[in-house]
Amino acid sequence: MKIALPLLAIALVLGAAPAHAQALSDPVIAHPDPESLFTSKDPKLHRNKQVALKIVKELLEADPWDRAPLYLTKRYIQHNPMAASGLDAVIHYFVNVAKRTPKPIPAKMQTKVVAVQAEGDFVTVSFVREMKDPKDPSKSYTTTWFDMWRFVDGKADEHWDPATLPPAAPAATSDLTLAQAQDRMQIEQLMWTYVRAIDGFDPDGYARVFTPDGAFGKTKGSAALRQMVIDMKKSQDDRRAKGEVIPAMHHFMANQTIEFVDKDHARVHYYWQTVFAGKTLNPPPRLAAAGRGVDDVVRVGGKWLISNRNVAPE
Hints:
The chain folds into two domains: 19-160, Nuclear Transport Factor 2, Chain: A; 171-310, Nuclear Transport Factor 2, Chain: A (Roll). Helix content is 31%, strand content 35%. The chain has helices spanning 4-13, 43-62, 87-97, 171-199, 203-208, 222-241; strands at 72-78, 113-119, 122-133, 136-152, 155-160, 210-216, 219-220, 248-262, 265-277, 286-300, 303-310. The chain starts with a helix and ends with a strand.
């Protein structure tokens, strides 16, 4: 026994956790006749307890929030970090935010109450609270919740409970979401810059949206990509010199979605069209080609660039 007791003390100090919740304690048990707890031989305490009963049984169980002014003062001070003070704020929350609708007031209280204490202007109601076992969601355990009210002239004027603010999202998750949103914006801007460069026959601008070894089909590398645009422009200029009317070229990318392979590599999925059209309908617009594309884009030196443009992945 002299050895066992120190070992138990050490285990408790070191935070030895139970295998499952409720392993170290008895369950919280509700009183079999909870309404009997809301009475007192003292007239003032009895009145306050009865109003607390109506708050729980009527407002919280049946939700007739038009009756709230009968039991709560206009200023109703809240000490719950997620609740605003004031009668109007309470009604707004339950009616407009929680969307609670009135139900018939039960003949007997349904809420599991453990105990009710009243002293001076205060009434404290302790409730059974059932929670999921964090180690095994198929199981649950019981603990205790309380609501405490301070009464003024037969109405609850101030309220306390053990509520806490929910945990903030992990910084890493929040930062990752923001970073990915910024990456999407930069990739979308990259694809717009690509389209403007090819439609404007800008060889240098076109080459700059690719990595140095980037490829469009079989055309690979900055010099080859730049020359491809120069050759396209020369071909059109030669045809125009012979009197051929060639409207402006427009590339359309639609139904675009971005798939992140990892933090520095993404794939842009889209449908595309190449259309020749002038400022007038004579000659009418001409659809030259259409298809589906999957482009690989990578981050190089903090900047997103196209590593491979594939307009015929099939």
